[in-house]
Amino acid sequence: MNGERFTPVNTFEYEALAKLKLPKMVYDYYASGADDEYTLEDNIAAFRRLRLRPRVLVDISAQDISTTLLGIPSSFPLVIAPAAMQKMAHPDGEVAVARAAAKNKVIMTLSSLSTCSMEQVAESSPAGAKWFQLYIYKDRQVTKKLVERAQNAGYKALVLTVDAQRLGRREADIHNKFSLPQHLTFGNFQEEQTTNDDKTRTKSAQGSGIEAYFASLMDPSLTWKDIAWLQSITRLPIILKGITTAEDAQKAVQSGVAAVIVSNHGARQLDGMLATIDCVEEVVDAVRSRIPVLMDSGVRRGTDILKALALGAKAVCIGRPVLWALAVGGEEGVDDVLNLLRNEFHLAMGLVGCRSVEEIDRRIVVHQDVARIQKLKPKTHPQPLSQNARL
Ligand SMILES: Cc1cc2nc3c(=O)[nH]c(=O)nc-3n(C[C@H](O)[C@H](O)[C@H](O)COP(=O)(O)O)c2cc1C
Ligand SMILES: CC(C)CC(=O)C(=O)O
């Protein structure tokens, strides 16, 4: 294979190419999971343990893969998950992702810890619907200000992350003494950064700078009572990100939130948790259609989206595939990955005999016998030989 002509055709190949392009510290931060990364591996493997049961001889000449999420139309059931510090992947950072999302008519979720400001991102792509991911700061005035700004800038919902009272232990970040590169800043905290440079840039003499930064600012005392507080200061719908059990799903419904995202944070928090696709049915059953259930962690293929919907999810979110695409090709790369996933989903939905997302149901997916599956080696993808590959 000629490395100069390598064009990625799936999200795994985007990762391989991004790994060649990115500085090691940045690639490791994006790619890492917590501890031994068992759950990281399982987020992907669990999708492979699920197999599809297609129905044939269905007229699929006019498929509709679109959906609606909290009243927002979406070209297919996919949302961009919040991921911090995107200018480390590409100088345009979150703005490039927002533009590609708007072009593809999918919702983008912006991280609290973005490297562009939320106003800049909103202005860059006014036609695209956006959600704002919220971390709750010990200083509630900081949190309140973020919420007000998100509301004023036109964000349509708050995605409150509830699985990160403390940051997980990512060993590569400890080895690399990960910190936000000197030329970048947190876009939503420009004022604070001129007065307290080192702390806000996450510098650390030892260990992971981001872990130290997070521990110094975020509130580990968060409980269900704080959901009521958040509801009292905003008119935006609140989505809880990081629900994985029936017990918490029931509490989420009782607390009056608009939706939940079944997520293990891309396996970056608690190693040893189930893969999130294995938690979806439990949460869906507990919620009993009262609010939409979304899921993320390990979605890499159109067939993964199909499987998640078959188990009752309304949509999936993707984290790392967007970062790899951004690193490889900026806005164009993200546009390409969204197109790839849309096309894969369209094809997969047709091949199982579903004409619309409403027709996707539990019968199209079956849990495969684990022992048998482990003997089947997944295809290895061709690796790009140089970073000068073309899109
Ligand atoms: C580099 C990176 C940064 C992330 N930053 C945030 C964040 O700021 N807020 C948040 O709620 N989740 C964050 N996440 C978790 C994602 O929103 C999402 O849950 C996860 O990436 C989904 O798994 P996937 O990467 O396998 O698709 C981050 C994930 C990654 C990989
Ligand atoms: C800056 C980090 C706290 C963002 C995050 O949630 C993550 O790295 O998983």
TrEMBL record:
<keyword id="KW-0560">Oxidoreductase</keyword>
<dbReference type="GO" id="GO:0006952">
    <property type="term" value="P:defense response"/>
</dbReference>
<dbReference type="InterPro" id="IPR037396">
    <property type="entry name" value="FMN_HAD"/>
</dbReference>
<feature type="binding site">
    <location>
        <position position="111"/>
    </location>
    <ligand>
        <name>FMN</name>
    </ligand>
</feature>
<dbReference type="InterPro" id="IPR000262">
    <property type="entry name" value="FMN-dep_DH"/>
</dbReference>
<keyword id="KW-0288">FMN</keyword>
<dbReference type="Pfam" id="PF01070">
    <property type="entry name" value="FMN_dh"/>
</dbReference>
<feature type="binding site">
    <location>
        <position position="29"/>
    </location>
    <ligand>
        <name>glyoxylate</name>
    </ligand>
</feature>
<dbReference type="InterPro" id="IPR012133">
    <property type="entry name" value="Alpha-hydoxy_acid_DH_FMN"/>
</dbReference>
<dbReference type="GO" id="GO:0005737">
    <property type="term" value="C:cytoplasm"/>
</dbReference>
<feature type="active site" description="Proton acceptor">
    <location>
        <position position="265"/>
    </location>
</feature>
<keyword id="KW-0285">Flavoprotein</keyword>
<dbReference type="GO" id="GO:0050665">
    <property type="term" value="P:hydrogen peroxide biosynthetic process"/>
</dbReference>
<feature type="binding site">
    <location>
        <begin position="296"/>
        <end position="300"/>
    </location>
    <ligand>
        <name>FMN</name>
    </ligand>
</feature>
<protein>
    <recommendedName>
        <fullName>FMN hydroxy acid dehydrogenase domain-containing protein</fullName>
    </recommendedName>
</protein>
<dbReference type="GO" id="GO:0016491">
    <property type="term" value="F:oxidoreductase activity"/>
</dbReference>
<feature type="binding site">
    <location>
        <begin position="82"/>
        <end position="84"/>
    </location>
    <ligand>
        <name>FMN</name>
    </ligand>
</feature>
<feature type="binding site">
    <location>
        <position position="265"/>
    </location>
    <ligand>
        <name>glyoxylate</name>
    </ligand>
</feature>
<feature type="binding site">
    <location>
        <begin position="319"/>
        <end position="320"/>
    </location>
    <ligand>
        <name>FMN</name>
    </ligand>
</feature>
<feature type="binding site">
    <location>
        <position position="135"/>
    </location>
    <ligand>
        <name>glyoxylate</name>
    </ligand>
</feature>
<feature type="domain" description="FMN hydroxy acid dehydrogenase">
    <location>
        <begin position="3"/>
        <end position="370"/>
    </location>
</feature>
<dbReference type="GO" id="GO:0010181">
    <property type="term" value="F:FMN binding"/>
</dbReference>
<comment type="similarity">
    <text>Belongs to the FMN-dependent alpha-hydroxy acid dehydrogenase family.</text>
</comment>
<feature type="binding site">
    <location>
        <position position="263"/>
    </location>
    <ligand>
        <name>glyoxylate</name>
    </ligand>
</feature>
<feature type="binding site">
    <location>
        <position position="161"/>
    </location>
    <ligand>
        <name>FMN</name>
    </ligand>
</feature>
<feature type="binding site">
    <location>
        <position position="241"/>
    </location>
    <ligand>
        <name>FMN</name>
    </ligand>
</feature>
<dbReference type="InterPro" id="IPR013785">
    <property type="entry name" value="Aldolase_TIM"/>
</dbReference>
<feature type="binding site">
    <location>
        <position position="170"/>
    </location>
    <ligand>
        <name>glyoxylate</name>
    </ligand>
</feature>
<dbReference type="GO" id="GO:0051707">
    <property type="term" value="P:response to other organism"/>
</dbReference>
<feature type="binding site">
    <location>
        <position position="133"/>
    </location>
    <ligand>
        <name>FMN</name>
    </ligand>
</feature>
<dbReference type="InterPro" id="IPR008259">
    <property type="entry name" value="FMN_hydac_DH_AS"/>
</dbReference>
<feature type="binding site">
    <location>
        <position position="268"/>
    </location>
    <ligand>
        <name>glyoxylate</name>
    </ligand>
</feature>
